[in-house]
Input
Amino acid sequence: MKRKVLGVLFTAMCLCAVPSAAYAEAQEAETTEAAGEAADEPEAGAETVTELSDSLYDFQVKIGDKVYQFPMYYQDFAADWTLGKNEDPEMGVGTNSYGSISFYKGDDRVSVDVINLGINQLPLNQCLVAGIDIDASYDFDVAATPVELPGGIVMGKSNFDDIKAAYGDPSDTYEGDLYTKYSYSKDYYEEVHFYVYKDDNTLKQVDMRNFVEPEGYDKGSVSEEVPEIVSSYTAPTELGDDLLAPQLEFCGDLYSLPAPVSAFLENGWELQNVEDGAYVAGRDLEFVDMMKNNQSVHFSVYNFTQDATAIENCFVRELEVGNYDSDALTLTLSGGFTLGAKKADLIAAAEEKGYSCDEDGDYLNIYKTADTKIDNRAQFWFNKDEDPDTVASVAYRNEILPE
Output
C-alpha cells in the first residue's frame, strides 16, 4: 500500500488537507479519460469482508452482522447507512483532503472520515470512507446493535484488561475526566483509539482511521486543457510604483506574480529533470528546478485549479535573490527596490502607503495588513556583519490572482 502523509486543517465539514507525494509521477496508461471516473466502479480495496480478522491493524469493525474494513468506497458504506440531512453528497472534496460527516441507521449515529486521495476534486459520494467514530456514550445503542472488533473486543462489555490482552500495550494513553483513551498506532493516521469510561470501566467509544491508499486505487487523469487563469495571463510592460505591487523584474524579464510557469518558459527558462506527463494535483504545491543562461533556480509552483494539471499550468508565487547568488540572477520590485536598497528608504516607502513594517532579527517584512501578511509581502535581509542598513537579499510573495 502507498502511504500518504497528512497535514493541515482545511475548512467547513472539518476538511483537512493532505500534502501530495510527487509531481514527477508520470500518469499511468490505465488512468480513465474522465477525472475520477473510476470512483463509480469500486474494484481494488473494496473486497467484501464477512468475518473479522485477528489483527487490529486490518482496520475492521463489525456493526450488527456486517463487517466494515477501512478504507472502503463511499457507496459501499452508504448502502447500509443514511447520510445526515445536513450533509451534501455532491459537495466537492479537494484532492488529498478529508472531512468528517455523519451517517445514521435508525437512532444510531456514526461519524466517518471521507477522503479524496485522487489528483482531482471529487464529489463527496465518490470518495473513500477511511475511518469511523462510534460513540456509545452519546448516540449509539450497542445493546441493540452490537459492535465488535478483532480479538473479541466488544463495545459496552470489554474493559482495558481485555483490550491489552488482545492487542498488547497501547502506543499512548490519555487520562480524561470521564474516560481513559488508549491509542494503538501503526503509523501516522493509521490508528485506533479506545475510550474506556470510568463510571463502569467499559469500552464506550472507538475511533478508527486508516488513511492509506488502497492497492489499485485509480487517482484520476490529468486534463490536457490549459486553464483560463493561465491563458488569460498577460505580462506587464513596466514596473509599478508600489513595492507590494505584483509587477517585478526577474533576470531581465517582467512578470506579474503569481505568474504561470509557461511565462517563464516563454522567456527562455527550461524545466530540469521533469518527466513527460508530470503534473501537480489540484490545489497542490510542488518544487521544480528551471535553468536559463547557465543559472539553475529552485521554484515552488502551485496549482490554483481544483484538478490536476501540467507543470507549465502552475504558478510561481514567490521569488528571491540574494547577494550570495550569481550576478546573473536579479530581482527588482515595483518602486525600483532591489539589492543594495537602504533600509530607511524601504521603511519610508512602506509608511507612505500605510503599510506595516516588522523587523525580525536581520529581516524586514513589509505587508499591507496582518490579514494579508501571508498572501502578499516583501522581505528584505540585511547582513549585519557587512552592512546592517543595506539590502543583501530580496524576496517577494503574492498568492492573490487578479480578479
User: Anything to note?
Assistant: The first helix runs from residue 74 to 78. Residues 228-398 form one domain. The chain has two domains: 2-213, 228-398.
